[in-house]
Write a structure and sequence with these properties.
about 775 residues; 34 helices
Amino acid sequence: MKAQYLFLILYMGLGFVPYIGAADKVVPQVLYLNLVNLSAIIYVAFILKKNIFSELSESLKNIESVFYFLFFIWSSITLINSINLSESVSILGDVFTYMVSFIFLIYFISKISNIKSVFFYIIMSLLIVEVVSVLFPYLYEIINIGSPNQRGQIYRGYTGNINVLAYILLIKMPFLVYFQITKQGNYRINFFLILLIVFIISAIFATRSAIISLFLISILISLFVIYIMKKEKKVSLTSSFKILYKVLILPVLLGLIINNIESRIFDTTSFQSRLSTLNNIAEDTSLSQRLRYYGHALKSFREKPILGKGIGSWEYESIKYEKQEMQNYIVPYHAHNDFLELLAETGLVGAILFFGLIVLVCFNLLKKILDKESDYESKLFSAFLIISFIVYLIDSSFNFPFARAIQQMHLLFLLAISIHVLNLKKINFQYTNLIVLLIIVLTPISIYSSSRLLVSSQHQAILLRQFNKSDYSTPSLDVIDKFEMNYKSLSATALPMPTIKGLFYANNGKYREAVSLFKKGIEANPYLFIHESFLGYTYNVLDMPDSALYYTKKAFDNMPKNSIHYANYINSLVQIKDSVTIKNVYQSLDVPIDKDPLYDQIYLVAMAEITDPESTDFTLSDIDIDIQSGNDRLKRGYYTLKVGESQMYKADEFYQYGMIRFEEENYKSAAEFFIEADSINPYELIYKENAANSLIRYGDDIGALKLLNDLIDNFNSKSAKAHYLRGLILIEQEGRQNQACLDLKFAKDNGFLDGTRVYEILCLRKN
């Protein structure tokens, strides 16, 4: 095998690089590309024994490669504005790696005479692997589970994400149509692959933007084919349509039909239903969220329109604009629009250089289509290249392919192929030797850098797994102290590594060491405020209430929807017994109606700790809390407020005695204990219910009914058991059967009578 073929395979086989324990698959992929780039340098300079400066100079005299080089230089300049230099440098290193890969792709492709044939085999090989990587787990789930899990990450193949794979498939799909028209490969295989791509995108992935892209590129393919065939082959519209029907329309229609059949069989979402969710943007949280992100990116761009905030900075800069909406530490990461994200990070110049490169190539490809001197097949191939670039640009409008190594390599491969096809006149660029020297010097440094980043990412994977589980018991501090923390201070989720390390130290009682780590976290990402919140918590432990209050308040004020920030701030207020502020903070919460009951629980427990039962009216006035639907801690806080902590425990003591008597079948004594518990704490409704149950078993239905009426009518109990007990008493009383059946039906509807026919026998029997 000739070396140029091997290098093309190595570059395009990037997707097969595994995670290797890293938190982000891009990290080992970039290291892999750096190693391939170094191998290419060694091959040209030492195996071919050619002057690498002169060999690469032709590749660097293409306007496209100059554009990418200028984008790299401009991105380097934007580091001036970055507040986290290590984060920006790591992304700049990725840009450098892609630039070198691009230059070598241009070089190796220029050495291949039968490039279209090689292109066919690369596209077909990758497509087959990608399609099979989805279909195997899909069929496995049907066979072993009975139905597929639509949009499940098990279908992500080697890309790490189903949305990424959707666009990776789409970017290649136009070439399947091209192969069909030019009769390359097997017609049935090409046809079947188009059908499967349509089915995978519409049924298995159900990615809305990809489905829209599928329809759009189908229209564009049809328009280009009809135009070129009419101009070059003098083919009529009817004949063109017949060809399109055979190579494109029929497999697309069949793929969509199979999607509808599959959706009925497995009760999954059809492509029509998936697209119908776009009708109401206001109710579509995904779309409204992205529109909010777009606004944030534009706002950031307006703040620094020339240099931007620094390459790679949006991961943490985005938090500054979104923090008031964040309920946890899942950051926006990306603007979900690479045009806007690059504007925010690198300013207008950076965005023009990167996307201008694609537009420039598409413009020249379009000129080739309109050029009378170009042959039919070249025009056709140029048209399909344009459509593939449009797929990338659509992806850039909704997602973030710039951050995905595999998508960047697909883009660079298509650009390199386009440069070969266009064969434009080289420009007189004087700095080719300087660029080659830069490549030779920086590639080993880039390998060292990406190696350290891989180690860091592997350590991140461990720390993030423990953080997500809130388990800081393992690994030990001795192990964590050896982790890579400084070369890249932010994890893949924008959580600072020192902050996570600080949580481990705090969990192990080393609070003063944790303080310094949390402060380092503030420097690494000043917008997330997890560090301030836990810094305040740590100061509380160290009995420094003023510092604790300062930091926890700062965290809460900046991210008020985060329950951790709320809890730590309330805890600081408890230390200084500020019940007025605690109530004001609780009432200021702007969280969803179905909020976590933790908010209520923290409020009640906090107020119970610093107030007495005489302050109950103040604590509970203008507060809407459903105590009976809460957990034990919520109830404990409420009961402490209402009757006092000692009385609450005294009532529980009587309740426990009652349970012992009940189990001994001493129902009269049990009822007495339950009634005593209820007299002390009438807000714990189970006391009345158990007392009534004991009285029924003792034979005192009248006493039981009195308790149940009080429980249901006055305390608004929703207990199915309480309604059932009252129904059993009332059913035996003359003229009260209708009321009894209402209670029994309530019990039945709430699942208490499941597996029995009590309601049917007592209430539905014939008179």
